């Protein structure tokens, strides 16, 4: 029929939004037109369906429950993996005792290898890196201000811009020039006839000191050979240290290999992969440290106190020898004026050849097998105390700032976002603190931030992670939010179990702290914003 | 909860009685959250927004007059809050493009998929389609079928003209039908 009205009109009609005259007109038409009647009826049904669909809302807990369930699954598998690994390693340990040590990440040899290969490059570039880092930071901050100003032209956050401006100003302050002589080159040298009248910093690949340094020497590089004389102390960090000349002070070294055939006036403190003291060497003071393999053929004036893989001596030790090792060999030409105290795993690991002279007592102490702390009840006691403390902190925070434990675990995406924010907070904060402390004015603020950061890492992050986890795991009752205390307790329990798992515990702890830190930052931000907006 | 009891709770809540406020939370949190969810689109924002509404309730409730039913007033406060959030989210962008008002002369349509939704799965699909609507359609649709507001009230809340609201709701439903028809065979 020609006077059928538009669907739009019928839509407004079934919504009850037509003016009285229009409504009557529609009613009249509908009485006569079956086709439009059907249309209107369809539209009415549609409205009903819409109303119904809208009224069934996903309870806030449901999304979290899904995340909670998948987290439980992950935690369960992690636990299974950890237990399995533990059994496997124990099995290997029974069959081939030596093989297990390399699997333990903290065995000395593995640690040194890893450390030297990676850290050396970092340290070598050290001074240049710090300069570059501060420059980059300055550029980033200035860039950040520019972007921030542009983007937040009508910004509600004048405080953050003021803070950024302050930081930029601080970076503009010139840093004090260095007061020591430093030489950076591929092969820095102090020539045979050269005398350096101040302390010296040497960095490079192959450093050589043939002349005289009337001060301390601080060196980092692949190799350092001291053939000349150093009047003060020597600090070295690198791969190889060779002292055939004289160091009148002490030698502090962290190196892959140390060979001493010259004279050291005071002590030698070392951490070395391999240590060799030649027959011509003379160390007037003590030798202390840790290492891989140590061989002593020279003379040590006082004590030798080492912790190393193997130790062999045919030299002369002025006082006591105390060593913790896996194999101790005292050759026939060795001389120990004082006592010998050996800490070994088994009695057979001590070999004292006939002819060796030991002035004092010889004591062999068998090292106890480290007891897994999982079997000690003392451990669980302290974990319970820790957890109770975290619970109290969480409740206190909740009471003081109710909104700070907001959402954050509602979806995988939110979780990732929290982890991302946490990573930023983890990495950026110490850098910001360093920058603040470079100028003396910023030290108080920097110190406070550092303390806050440390406290967050140690305690707060876990509290936030526990709270979010707990709320995700606890079943949501219709119409009410889950009891916070219970949720926090449950979440913290899971967190503490997770971080104490063998092998995977460290990684889980890192992840938990990341997410927790992110939640903390996000919660703080939304609390501040809420407080700033007037209701 | 009957009217008289609710009145009592409201009176105590206006005196900032913690227990009364907690009772209001228990009663209305789901509705408030639902509205936030539909208006804001993102679940984590919705939770945040809902908590903010209740966080401000102790002060805000003092301006409540019993002329309006409390649930409607609360939902109105909630939608204002959500709209504020949305505006903040889109700093420079305007929520609604200025649209010319035109009545659409569309021929009669067949029974749409929206007629057949009964199953949970079907509802889920429809909810998904609603959440996927652009804000200019989703907001008026939500205010109409969730909060039961009249076109005039919606127009006032969104700062639009009444004919504009009518058109947007109509187009929203058309969009929904399209989306649902495209995505499935049987509802």
**Helix percentage of chain B:** 55-70%
Structural class of chain A: alpha/beta
Number of domain units of chain A: 5
CATH topology of the largest domain in chain B: Rna Polymerase Sigma Factor, Chain: A
- Number of helices, counting only DSSP H or I runs of 4 residues or more of chain A: 12
Order of helices and strands of chain B: HHHHHHHH
What is the CATH first-level class name of the largest domain in chain B?
Mainly Alpha
Unreliable spans of chain B = 97-111
Number of strands of chain B: 0
| Radius of gyration of chain B (Å) | 18 Å
Share of helix of chain A, binned: 40-55%
Shape of chain B: globular
Q: Quaternary arrangement of the chains shown? A: heterodimer
Per DSSP E runs of 2 or more residues, the count of β-strands of chain A stands at: 24
Give the end-to-end Cα distance of chain A, rounded to a whole number of Å.
56 Å
User: Mind summarizing the main beta sheet of chain B?
Assistant: none
Describe the secondary-structure layout.
The complex is a heterodimer of chains A (535) and B (187).
Chain A: H1 7-14, H2 20-32, H3 34-55, H4 60-95, H5 108-124, H6 126-151, H7 158-172, E1 181-184, E2 189-190, E3 195-196, E4 200-209, E5 212-213, E6 217-226, E7 229-230, E8 234-243, E9 246-247, E10 251-260, E11 263-264, E12 268-277, E13 282-283, E14 287-296, E15 299-300, E16 304-313, E17 316-317, E18 321-324, E19 327-330, E20 335-336, E21 340-344, E22 350-352, E23 357-358, E24 362-366, H8 377-400, H9 412-438, H10 443-473, H11 484-499, H12 505-532
Parallel strand pairs in A: 1-4, 2-4, 3-5, 4-6, 5-7, 6-8, 7-9, 8-10, 9-11, 10-12, 11-13, 12-14, 13-15, 14-16, 15-17, 16-18, 16-19, 17-20, 18-21, 19-22, 20-23, 21-24
Chain B: H1 3-14, H2 18-40, H3 43-60, H4 70-89, H5 120-132, H6 135-145, H7 151-158, H8 162-183
Helix pairs in contact in B: 1-2, 2-3, 2-4, 2-6, 3-4, 6-8, 7-8
């Amino acid at each position: 029929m020609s006077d059928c009205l538009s669907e739009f009109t019928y839509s407004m009609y079934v919504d009850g939004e037509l003016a009285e005259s229009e409504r009557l007109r529609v009613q009249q038409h509908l009485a006569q037109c079956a086709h439009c009647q059907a249309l209107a009826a369809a539209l009415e049904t549609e409205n009903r369906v819409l109303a119904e669909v809208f009224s069934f809302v996903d309870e806030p807990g449901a999304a979290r429950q899904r995340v909670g369930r998948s987290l439980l699954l992950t935690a369960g598998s992690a636990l299974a993996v950890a237990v399995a690994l533990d059994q496997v390693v124990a099995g290997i340990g029974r069959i081939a005792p030596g093989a297990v040590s390399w699997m333990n990440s903290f065995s000395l040899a593995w640690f040194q290898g890893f450390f030297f290969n990676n850290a050396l490059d970092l340290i070598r570039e050290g001074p240049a890196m710090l300069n570059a880092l501060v420059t980059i930071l300055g550029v980033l901050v200035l860039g950040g201000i520019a972007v921030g100003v542009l983007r937040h032209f009508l910004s509600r956050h004048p405080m953050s811009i003021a803070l950024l401006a302050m930081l930029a100003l601080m970076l503009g302050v010139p840093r004090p020039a260095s007061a020591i002589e430093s030489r950076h080159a591929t092969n820095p040298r102090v020539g045979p006839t050269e005398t350096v009248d101040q302390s010296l910093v040497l960095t490079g690949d192959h450093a050589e000191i043939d002349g005289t340094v009337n001060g301390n020497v601080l060196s980092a590089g692949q190799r350092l050979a001291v053939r000349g004389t150093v009047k003060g102390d020597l600090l070295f960090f690198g791969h190889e240290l060779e002292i055939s000349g004289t160091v009148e002070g002490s030698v502090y070294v962290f190196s892959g290999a140390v060979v001493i055939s010259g004279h050291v006036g005071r002590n030698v403190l070392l951490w070395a992969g391999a240590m060799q003291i030649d027959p011509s060497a003379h160390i007037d003071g003590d030798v202390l440290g840790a290492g891989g393999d140590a061989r002593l053929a020279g003379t040590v004036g006082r004590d030798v106190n080492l912790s190393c893989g193997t130790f062999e001596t045919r030299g002369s030790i002025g006082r006591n020898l105390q060593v913790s090792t896996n194999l101790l060999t005292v050759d026939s030409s060795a001389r120990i004026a004082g006592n010998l105290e050996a800490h070994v795993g088994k009695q057979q690991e001590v070999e004292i050849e006939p002819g060796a002279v030991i002035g004092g007592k010889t004591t062999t102490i068998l090292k106890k097998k480290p007891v897994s702390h999982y079997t000690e009840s003392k451990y669980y006691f302290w974990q319970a105390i820790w957890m109770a403390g975290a619970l109290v902190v969480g409740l206190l925070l909740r009471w003081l700032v109710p909104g700070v434990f907001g959402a954050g675990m509602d979806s995988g995406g939110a979780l990732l976002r929290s982890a991302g924010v946490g990573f930023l907070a983890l990495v950026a904060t110490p850098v910001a603190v360093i920058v603040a402390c470079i100028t003396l004015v910023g030290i108080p603020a920097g110190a406070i931030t550092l303390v806050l950061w440390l406290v967050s890492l140690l305690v707060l992050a876990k509290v936030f992670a526990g709270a979010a986890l707990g709320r995700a795991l606890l079943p949501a009752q219709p119409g009410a939010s889950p009891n916070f205390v219970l949720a926090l307790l449950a979440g913290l329990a899971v967190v503490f179990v997770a971080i104490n798992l063998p092998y995977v515990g460290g990684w889980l702890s890192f992840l938990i702290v990341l997410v927790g830190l992110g939640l903390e930052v996000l919660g703080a931000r939304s609390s501040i914003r809420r407080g700033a907006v007037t209701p | 909860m009957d009217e008289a009891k609710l009145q009592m709770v409201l009176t105590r809540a206006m005196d900032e009685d913690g227990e009364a406020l907690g009772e209001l939370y228990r009663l209305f949190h789901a509705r408030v959250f639902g509205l936030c969810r539909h208006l804001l689109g993102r679940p984590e924002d919705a939770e945040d927004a809902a908590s903010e509404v209740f966080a401000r309730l102790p002060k805000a409730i003092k301006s409540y007059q019993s002329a309006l039913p409390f649930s409607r007033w609360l939902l109105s406060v909630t939608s204002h809050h959500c709209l504020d959030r949305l505006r903040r989210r889109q700093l420079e962008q305007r929520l609604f493009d200025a649209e010319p008002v035109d009545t659409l002369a569309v021929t009669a349509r067949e029974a749409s998929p929206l007629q057949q939704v009964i199953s949970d799965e079907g509802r889920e699909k429809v909810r998904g389609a609603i959440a996927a609507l652009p804000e200019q359609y989703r907001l008026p649709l939500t205010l109409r079928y969730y909060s039961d507001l009249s076109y005039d009230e919606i127009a006032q809340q969104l700062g639009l003209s009444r004919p504009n609201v009518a058109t947007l709701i109509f187009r929203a439903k058309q969009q929904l039908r399209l989306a649902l028809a495209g995505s499935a065979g049987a509802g």
